[in-house]
Amino acid sequence: MSLHRTFKALSDPVRREILEHLKLEQKTAGEINQLFDISAPAVSRHLSVLKDAGLVRDYRKGKYIFYELKASVLEETLLWIANLKEQKNEEG
Amino acid sequence: MSLHRTFKALSDPVRREILEHLKLEQKTAGEINQLFDISAPAVSRHLSVLKDAGLVRDYRKGKYIFYELKASVLEETLLWIANLKEQKNEEG
DNA sequence: GGTACAATTAACATTATTGCTAATTGTTAG
DNA sequence: CTAACAATTAGCAATAATGTTAATTGTACC
Predict the structure, then answer these.
(1) What pTM was computed for the model?
(2) Is the pLDDT of residue B5 over 70?
(3) Average pLDDT, integer, range B56-70
(4) Among A43, A62, B17, B38, which one is most buried in terms of CB atoms within 10 A?
(5) Closest by alpha carbon to A54, among A9, A91, A14?
(6) How far is B63 from chain A (nearest CA, A)?
(7) Domain count, chain A
(8) What per-residue confidence (pLDDT) applies to B92?
């Protein structure tokens, strides 16, 4: 999963909020949908972007498709940002 | 500076690369421009987005405008991501 | 003031993103 | 097989993002 995909995925407020909800517990697409004032297809697309970025995992259980957070890819992102923040060492 | 602006600013590869260069040393708009295969106005706009997000600071020195990294706003971003990664505590 | 250079802002074209409704796919239950 | 429900994919409209060239602004130097 590329750093670019991760940053792109995180650049949308709906997707960030989805991740925040999934941090608490896994949810079905329908449950996630109810959290927002946008259509089911719109949420579905956001979920697809998150999945492509490797930020969530989904699995079907009967009629329902569950989504759960997969935070491991954030490690790379965290490192990239931390590296930018890192102080330049003064000479000596 | 909002988390949203920061994430939006970081979602573009050119802007991320600009920040990486500025981490090493401050540069003029023209110097930054030479690092990319896009027009000066395009780079100027990217710099403006970074500035609005609070990720860089600029100051004029004669004909030149210098840009330097201002990594402090990344703290909030880092915390947001770290919080997502944070393990849920098991009961007991 | 007038020329040269650095950089930005203006105006516009192209592409990407986001949202909608309608149609399709997958699963359950009769 | 059919009806009902969950969710996605298809097709399209509106908006945002990114790039270009042309025009403008700011500074230095003669």
Answers:
(1) 0.93
(2) yes
(3) 98
(4) A43
(5) A9
(6) 28
(7) 1
(8) 46
